[in-house]
Amino acid sequence: MDSLDSTSSSAGYGRRVAVLGGTGFVGRPVCRALAGLGYEVVAVARRAVPVPHTVAVRPLDLAAAGAGELAAILREERVGAVVNAAGGMWGLTDEQMVAANLTLVQRVVEAAATAPVPMRVVQLGSIHEYGLVPIGESMSEETTPAPVNAYSQLKLECTEAVVEATRQGRVDGVSLRIGNVVGAGQPRVSLLGVVADQLWAAHAEGRPAALKLGPLGSQRDFLCLSDAVAAITTAVVMPDLPERIFNIGTGRATSARAMVRLLIEVSGVATELVEADAPAGPETTWQQMRIDRARRLLGWSPSGDLSDGMKELWEHQAESARG
Question: Of residues 13, 39, 130, 151, which has the active-site annotation?
Fold first, then answer.
C-alpha cells in the first residue's frame, strides 16, 4: 500500500496529488513524473494555463488565498497529498516574500489539516536554510541553520512550520532541503537563465557571445532538475517517512564559474567570458550538503551528471526560442 492508499482508505480519496505551483520550473515536471507513476495530478497555480499530464488545473493566487479556499479545492478534488512547489524571491518586496513563502505554507498546513486523516505534505525547502559554512565542510540535517538573508530565513520558518504540524499530528509532512537546481525551464532571472538567454541571442545571430558577469567564485551544491523531481516523487509515494527533513543535492560543491563554463560548452557558442573581481578577503561562499540520510532512508541518490541538466536547459532554451 503506498502513501496515498494508506492515508485515504478511510476517507475514500483516490490517488490524487495536488501540486501547488504546478505550472512552474519544478512543479511542471513533478506533475509529469507523478502522472507517469499512475497518480492523478491536480495543478494549482495563479493562472489556469494548460499543464500536460494533469486531470485538472485550478487557478488560485496561493500568496493571497485563505486556507479555506485551498481546503475547498483539496476537498473538491479529493486530494490525498500535497506538494508545495510554490513560493518566490525574485523581484518581490519583503512583504510579498513573506506572503509567497511563510504565509502560504501556514495556509497549506491549515488546509491540509482539515482532511479526515493526516495528509502527506511535501514542502520544497532550500539548501539556503543552512546559510554558509567553512570551505570543505558538509552540511547535514543536524547542522544548525544560520540563514543569511530574508528569503533563507523564511524558507527555514516554512520547514519548521511543516515539521511542527507533523509533530502535532495535524499533517504527515516532510521538508526536502533542495540544492541549486539546473534544468529545462531555468528561471530567466537566475544566473544560468541570464547566461542561457545571452548565449542563445549570440547563437541566433551567428556571432560570438560576450558575457560580462559578476564574481563567479561562489561554490554551491548544484543538482539536476530530474534528480530533484525523483526525490520529490519518492517523498510523495513512500508509505512511512522515518525522518521529516532530508537534504537533496549531489553532496559536492561546484563553483558558479564551472557551471557557466559548462553551459558555454554545451551551447557550442564561442564566448568571451569577463568576470568581475571578487571582493578582497577569503572565499566564504560555500555550500555542500551531506545526503546520506536520503540515500539510506529514501533510497534516493542523484543519478544525473550536471552536464545532463545543462543539456536539458539548453535544449529547452532552443525550443522556447523557436516558439
Answer: 151
Is 39 annotated as catalytic? no
The contacts of residue 152 (CB under 8 Å, 6+ apart) are 126, 128, 129, 131
Please give the radius of gyration of the chain, using alpha carbons only, rounded to the nearest integer. Answer: 20
DSSP for 196-239 reads: HHHHHHHHHHTS-EEEEES----EE-EEEHHHHHHHHHHHHH-S
* Residues near 133 by beta carbon (within 8 Å), at least 6 away in sequence: 139, 143, 286, 287, 288
What is the tens place of the pLDDT at every residue in 200-217?
Answer: 999 999 999 999 999 999
Angstrom distance (rounded) from CA 315 to CA 275: 25
Domains of the chain and CATH, by start: 3-181+224-250+286-303 (3.40.50.720)
